[in-house]
Amino acid sequence: MNQEDRENELLALESILDSATFKFNDSTGRLDIFPQLSISPIKIHVDLNCGTGNDDFPNGELRGVNFLPPYELNFSLPENYPASESPKFNLSCMWLSTSQLNKLCRKLDEIWNRNTGNVILYDWYQFLQEESLDFLGITDILHLRNEFPSATNDSRINGASVKSQSRNEFRRAIQTTLNYAEILPMLLKYDREKCRENFITAIFACNICFEDKKGMDCLQFKDCGHVYCKKCISSYFEIHITEGAISSLICPEPECKTTALPNQVKDAVKQHLYDRYEK
Ligand SMILES: [Zn+2]
Ligand SMILES: [Zn+2]
């Protein structure tokens, strides 16, 4: 019965999730789980007592992101799963602290204990995707906790809070960032790449030619977010530069005052026109 349950579970996961998200091979597997934000963008807050090591990100400043990198759940299925044994697993993430990851691991245990005898991977997946941030009290702000060994070693060794099960839990909960100062820059980079990825594949209706175009063929003004196809915006820029009306390289949307960035103009117009614009 175990064997059949397991096979059905794995087939179901394979049919629901794509191969980049779910991998399984010879009783071990991996799930990449993207936690859903309840508010987007979510603000990121950095510990005031720790320099981020980068002048672009002053201490404590709140920065918003729309995407967070996934948790990685690595698991193996023991022989008696699901009849009596739960999957062995570890949970890793770059932006949660070890104690937050431990809390999630204990919650996965609890879900298993309530459902012992039944396949559990999808329940775990669903919890981590849909409920984990709320469960950790992360709604509109993600406070990046500085709980790296260099900062907390002493309290871990001497503190009364170290329980007998801790050793086991430390191995299940894996914080993958080596240095606290790296987390915010990595989150911002991830968010930029994801936004870019989403933009180039999304479809936009150009407000000049009214045609639907893929993002990769469009330009988006930075502050207002208005989008036009490259063909239209190129002619628009070129006409204005040719007429010498350089100051009006602003978003064509009526009433909008957002100016185009120099590199957007450079990408859109012929070199000799860009040279004129630059002067
Ligand atoms: Zn157009
Ligand atoms: Zn605009």
Sum up the structure in keywords.
single chain; 279 residues; alpha+beta; Ubiquitin Conjugating Enzyme; Herpes Virus-1; 2 domains; five-stranded mixed beta sheet; three-stranded mixed beta sheet; elongated; binds zinc ion; metal-binding
Describe the fold and architecture.
With 279 residues, this protein is α+β, with helices and mostly antiparallel strands. The protein has helices at 2-16, 98-115, 121-135, 149-158, 166-172, 180-201, 230-242, 262-268, 271-278; strands spanning 22-25, 28-33, 42-46, 63-65, 71-76, 88-93, 141-144, 173-175, 203-205, 212-214, 218-220, 227-229. The chain has two domains: 2-196, Ubiquitin Conjugating Enzyme; 203-278, Zinc/RING finger domain, C3HC4 (zinc finger) (Herpes Virus-1). It is built from nine helices and twelve strands. The chain has a five-stranded mixed sheet with strand order 1-2-5-6-8. Helix 2 (98-115) crosses helix 3 (121-135). 24% of the residues are buried. Residues 150-165 have low confidence and may be disordered. The structure holds zinc ion (2 copies). One zinc ion (ZN) is lined by residues 206, 208-209, 211, 228-229, 231-232.
State the gist of this model.
By secondary structure, the protein is α+β, with helices and mostly antiparallel strands. The protein is built from 9 helices and 12 strands. The chain folds into 2 domains: 195 residues, Ubiquitin Conjugating Enzyme (Roll), CATH 3.10.110; 76 residues, Zinc/RING finger domain, C3HC4 (zinc finger) (Herpes Virus-1, 2-Layer Sandwich), CATH 3.30.40.10.
Q: Structural class of the helix and strand makeup?
A: alpha+beta
Parts with pLDDT < 50 across at least 5 consecutive residues: 150-165
| Proportion of beta-strand residues | 15-25%
Number of helical runs? Answer: 9
* Main β-sheet description: 5 strands, mixed
Specify the CATH homologous superfamily of the largest domain. Ubiquitin Conjugating Enzyme
Question: What's the architecture of the largest domain in CATH terms?
Answer: Roll
Distance between the termini: 77 Å
Order of helices and strands: HEEEEEEHHEHHEHEEEEHHH
Strand order of the largest sheet: 1-2-5-6-8
Report the principal-axis shape: elongated
Per CATH, what is the topology of the largest domain? Ubiquitin Conjugating Enzyme
* Bound small-molecule species: zinc ion
Average of pLDDT: 86
The total domain count is 2
CATH class of the largest domain: Alpha Beta
Tell me the total number of β-strands. Answer: 12
Radius of gyration, whole Å = 25 Å
Q: What is the percent of helical residues?
A: 40-55%
